[in-house]
Amino acid sequence: MNDFIIIGGGVIGMLTASQLAEAGHGVTLVERGRCGEEASWAGGGIVSPLYPWRYSEPVSRLARGAEVAYQALSESLLANTGIDIEYRRKGLLYLRVDDGERAFAWAQRQGWPLERVDAGFIYRQEPWLAEGLGEGLWMPTLGSVRNPRLCRALRTRLNALPNVTLLEHAAVQRLSVVQGRVRGVETTRGRLAADRVILCGGAWSGVLLAEHDVAMPVRPVKGQMMLFVTPPMPGGRQLLERVVLADGRYLIPRGDGRVLVGSTLEQADFDKSTTEEARESLWHSAVAMLPALAECRVEHHWAGLRPAAPDGIPFIGAVPGIEGLFVNAGHFRNGLVLAPAATRLLVDLLLEREPAIDPTLYRPARRLGRAG
């Protein structure tokens, strides 16, 4: 029998599996499709909440812990898999921010570097941004990862660990619960037994819990994004080399010169279809920030479903009323951002280690109700 079953093969599920396996435990990860091909693949990969000063303290704590962890994670995955996840710490430029004083107050509390910069600084960093920019905010330490490569590296790592079983293309139909205790899961490929089950199902996490009268308010929020192919620029530069954020939309450069623009926020239940309206909106936002993109080819346009919980605070810990069942879900736009810290917190609780972050504010027992 497995020590742990993990439901959901996104970055949260895969990182949880690797940490438990590296601690010597037997793990089966069950994924209804292929690992890393849902929200974790669809995101942008900025290693920070978009406007971090607008988030609550619990989110800030996890984000700070994750930022510290990403460098080590990047190096470990490269050493163990040969895959470079393109963790880049080239900073982030904020344009047209209307709550700068709030941002500086937050940065001072957090000990996070933040600077007000003028047009000269902006155009030295990114010379092909739109004309007419007067000033902005600059976070020099913020970075990004290329999330499809992160997903591929984590899956490769799990396949190399002898005490991990990846069961892909196997949908979990129901939890097996006997006398208030989880005993495993029923899947489309048979029953799996374990005394501890971890639900990392993203936007789908609440569906299984509802069958056991646990109401977890995690809903899907669709986000559409696009990717441009850009040409080489003079002096060996890329058209864009740093993350730029303006009016709620962002541009993210990739190591090969591609530029990603995102994203929409849509209440569309579990619909992942793309729309022409979103395509036009994203294109105009991208060109407004970086006019040369008007002459660049759009290589891809896609959508993903973010798992939104109230206040953006994820549920992390034991599910009340079902012994042996745990959850790590509801990270909204920040699944990739928070993943290293959020998974470490849950694994610390599972293995009865002293957590680096106080788990109280994420504990499901404080926030979950009964369904119906």
Largest sheet: 8 strands, mixed
What count of helical segments does DSSP give? 10
Mean pLDDT: 93
Outline the low-pLDDT stretches: none
**Silhouette:** globular
CATH class of the largest domain: Alpha Beta
Overall tally of structural domains: 2
Strand content: 25-35%
Order of helices and strands: EHEHHEHEHEHEEEEEHEEEEEHEEEHHE
Question: What is the C-alpha radius of gyration, as a whole number of Å?
Answer: 21 Å
Strand order of the largest sheet: 4-5-3-13-14-15-12-16
End-to-end separation: 33 Å
The CATH topology annotation of the largest domain reads as FAD/NAD(P)-binding domain
Give the fraction of residues assigned to helices: 25-40%
Structural class: alpha/beta
CATH-scheme architecture of the largest domain: 3-Layer(bba) Sandwich
Q: Give a count of the beta strands, DSSP E runs of length 2 or more.
A: 19
User: CATH H-level name of the largest domain... which superfamily?
Assistant: FAD/NAD(P)-binding domain
